Amino acid sequence: MLIVRGTKKLRDRMKKTPAASLSDESTTALGDWFATALFWKPQAALLVNTRTMIPVFTPLAPAGKLLDRAPEAIAAVLRAHGVSDDVIATELNEMSEVRIAQTNDRQIVGVMNEFAFQGEGAWGAHDPDLFSMSMRLSGLILGPLMSRHGTPADELAAFFRDDADVIALPTAHATTPRRHCNNSRNASPPSRQHRPLVSTQPFSPASTQSSQTPPLTKPVWRPTRRAWRRWMPLNRSPSSATPEGLWPPGRHRPRSGRSR
Question: Is 71 helix (H, G, I), strand (E, B) or coil?
């Protein structure tokens, strides 16, 4: 038995299809599939697997026969990803009975929305048909798969392979690669190793000052134009107002006399 968990807008178009009870469970190896309706031109249906998040795009019309066409569409995508024929035949045998139910996982619904958003922008321009769109979007990096295998295609390859050697993508919690230790599994990386807080070298005053450090210089006082008008004495030139005779470069010197 295969349980297809559809959204409300899809279930409204499939009112005559058999509904699953609370005790029904999928007997396939991949588990349940989520589905939604995409009101494109032409309209399409999107199916996403709960365990591998593989997307399958298929035409929606006729909506009443979608559950009958879903197993063949899923088998075509699995065959294109390199799944063996024996596994596909077993999956098709278990999909002989398909029922629809409500969605029960918001994470998979969010993944469906992301696939729908990515597919709508590429429909017609990059993907001539729905099958090529299913294959292209299976290589999309998803957030829920970052700690596992990154993309739905790699997750599907690792699911049907016992000795999976797919390398997981780095996450925010594992940005620094760990080094292999002999007997310490929880050893800290080299940047977190304990270092002595007190130096063991003898103290010398000459070592505190480096010969390469430039000496500190006194900052030059450069008054603004308003400061010159306020502080400059009457009938005196600006050069005599300060010992250095500095004036901000590129500024017009005010006239000597009473400031306005």
Answer: helix
pLDDT tens, residue by residue, 203-246: 455 555 545 555 555 555 666 666 656 555 544 555 544 444 55
The domain spanning residue 39 has which CATH number? 3.30.420
Q: How many domains does the chain have?
A: 1
CA distances for 64 relative to 11, 67, 124, 245, angstroms: 10, 8, 26, 92
The distance from CA 3 to its chain's CA centroid, rounded to whole angstroms, is 29
Please give the radius of gyration of the chain, using alpha carbons only, rounded to the nearest integer.
36
Q: Which is nearest to 130 in space by CA: 76, 66, 67?
A: 76
Q: Which two tokens stand for residue 119?
A: 């597919």
Claim: this prediction has a pTM higher than 0.85: no
* Residue 227 CA to its chain's centroid (Å): 54
